[in-house]
Queue: 2 jobs
Job 1
Amino acid sequence: MKIGKLACLTAGLISVASLTPSARADDIKLAVQPELNWETTPEGVAFASLKGNRFDESYMAMVRLPAGLISPVHTKSAGMYGLIVSGEMVHLSENEIGGSEVVLKAGDYYEIPAHLPHLSKCVSEVECVTFLYQDGPFDFVPVGEGRK
């Protein structure tokens, strides 16, 4: 694991934006789980923004995936850095599909480089929750649609 990326992720966790707009810039910022505002995609993946607008800039969010969800092989234009909070996940590059799988559990870290074709799966019997930092705006380009 690259120490610089982990330090960036840790610094991001410390600076998470408050859900209370009246907080001063020098206050401790807290995001209490029951107050998170989850937005669910048609595929059932839910995002709770912590800092930044995921469609316009780099951002931090809590992400929930339904148990058993397997994404299609896709790419993202930005790098992704995540920490598993609950559940069990597998992330595979396109070249690793069909090979051995490392199951990530609570406390495990993952890093997916920008433009790397990959798939993600929630392999647990319960939903998977991750803390996610993405170093640019969110996109999801299924493989084949983004290639020329």
Note: Confidence is low (pLDDT under 50) at residues 6-21.
Job 2
Amino acid sequence: MPDRKRTAKNGSSVPKNAAPTPGVSAENNDGGYNAGMAVFSYIIGGIIVWSLIGWGLDYLWGTRWIVLAGALLGALGGFYLSHMHGLTSSRTTTGKSGADSGPSADGNTNAK
């Protein structure tokens, strides 16, 4: 079966079966809310899972500090996972205005 492509609003073609970045809509018009919720979920999920693992190890070994190490490891792991999925990168260039990017797309400038 041939690989069908769809054309995005900006004219670029994206493979139809390409997996989108989790938490980011195809049009990128969500204002970052979905990406923020995905980052939040990864971090909170990591804290919960690794804290439970640490709690279990604390129970088995009779210690009291592994649960805290697990929570820290889960938070770092959640942030790393969201970073690797591209959810923590900025979509716009910081420190630049639209005028700094060069001539307009239509090429008609009033420069003399």
Note: The two ends are 55 Å apart (CA to CA).
